[in-house]
Amino acid sequence: MMTSKPHITRSTKTTAISAIRLMLLSVLILFKACTIDEDPVVSIEVVLYFPEHFTEQFASDVEVKIVNRQTGFVMHEQTNEQGVAMFNNPPFGIYDISVSETLTAERCAELIGIPEEVMLSAQRSNVYIHGEAETRYYMNLASSRAGDLVFKEIFYSGSRTPNDGTYYADQFMEIFNNSTEVIYVDGLLISDIMGNPSGPNPSPWRNDHDHVYAQTIWRIPGSGNDYPLSPGQSIVISQNGFDHREQNANSIDLSSPVSDFEYYVEREDGRDFDNPDVPNMILEHFAFMGIDYVLHVRGPGMIIWRCDEIDTLPRFTRPGSISNQEYVRIPVDMVIDGVEALADAEHGQNKRLPPSIDAGFIYCSGSYVNESIRRKVRTEIGGRIVLQDTNNSAIDFEVISPPTPKTFD
Predict the structure, then answer these.
(1) Residue 114's pLDDT is what?
(2) Cα end-to-end span (Å), the chain
(3) Which pLDDT value is given to residue 143?
(4) Structural contact between residues 195 and 160, judged by C-beta atoms closer than 8 angstroms
(5) What pLDDT, on the 0 to 100 scale, is given for residue 268?
(6) Which domains does the chain have, with CATH numbers?
(7) Which of 130, 146, 284, 305 has its CA 20 to 30 A from that of 176?
(8) Are the CB atoms for 238 and 274 separated by under 8 Å?
(9) What percentage of the chain carries pLDDT values higher than 70?
(10) Using an 8 Å Cβ cutoff, are 321 and 356 in contact?
(11) If residue 390 lies in a helix (H) or strand (E), which one and from where to where?
(12) Please, are residues 226 and 186 in contact by the beta-carbon 8 Å criterion?
């Protein structure tokens, strides 16, 4: 006996197809929901190499840090014997990779034959970590001797007057003796390095890691034995060495003895104030100068250095520019300490100082905000403060308000 085939109407087919589509749509929505709820991840490797003059090629037992620029997510990992630091499953995003390590004198004796502390640093910004990106990043460490003189504080952002006007005549920088010996600061050179901390025209030489390009060079006066600086003590060099509270109630006192030196621009019209109680710095070179010497209120790149023959250093104009302004090329070996300050976290590509001088950068919350950048205290030995110096301003410095010249209060 034959069984008749069931009759399926058009409406029945339509209902079945709709049910299947609804089921598939539900699965798709569920899949997307799971994708949204779970952060995409990928594992990466960072391979570190010691500088060429080291006896070992791979930088083992060195800490590497990655920071997600959007979320602030941080991971730390140590390199193995092959110099590899493995980061398992960091969430997708844009990262900064950095290294700031101080090798002990004993370890340096093994690696370079000299028993003294050496700082290692490396920086790589805007690394995009995602499923289709490369998973291995190679980085060469730069080395520099632990500095005896360091920047303790730089006040560049300026302040506001009670009437909400802008005021920047109270800028200053403070240099600290971080060693255990008396150091004579006679002849010490201070320079700000060419480059825009926030604009579209960064330094054309920012990829030259063997030199920096100074737009201004100032020298501390003295014959060699006039200005001794004891361990744990500092000098303040101010834009104008007077009590700025007389001009701006929101400012600070930079008169003597707070200021040890001041930047004075000698002009025929005498528009720059000269305090006779505060010795003047000696101007050796400037690319351009106004009424006064002013640090960039969005962030200067500063160095301390020494050189007996400044005139022998080569000078360059900006490539492609019609300006005749000259910038002095300084080998990084002459630099004692350096600090990179930029406008904000988004302008790492504007760095002016190479990793061997400063592997990172620091920034204030804005301009005319009465904030300064100050180096952190690492420890205190027998009443002598020792400042932190890992060669990375992002780690070594903090932003404070108000400024604290000659103090840590």
Answers:
(1) 66
(2) 104
(3) 76
(4) no
(5) 67
(6) 44-145 (2.60.40.10), 149-400 (no CATH)
(7) 284
(8) no
(9) 86
(10) no
(11) none
(12) yes
| pLDDT tens digits along 111-132 | 877 677 788 888 888 888 887 7
> CA dist 19 to 7, 10, 24, 29, 146, Å?
19, 14, 9, 15, 72
- For the entire predicted model, the pTM comes to 0.73
Q: Which of 33-47, 123-137, 230-244, 389-403 has the lowest mean pLDDT?
A: 33-47
Strand order in the sheet with 74-78: 74-78, 63-68, 93-103, 118-129, 142-145
Amino acid type, 68: N
Cβ atoms within 10 Å of 111's Cβ, excluding its own: 18
Of the candidates 138, 99, 73, which has an alpha carbon nearest to the alpha carbon of residue 359?
Answer: 99
φ, ψ of residue 68 to 5 degrees: the values are: -75, 120
Dist. CA 272–CA 116, nearest whole Å: 44
Instruction: Quickly list H helices, 154-285.
Output: none
CA 173 – CA 193 distance, rounded (Å): 15
Q: Which residues contact 206 (CB under 8 A, 6 or more apart)?
A: 195, 350, 351, 352
How far apart, in whole angstroms, are the C-alpha atoms of residue 227 and residue 119? 28
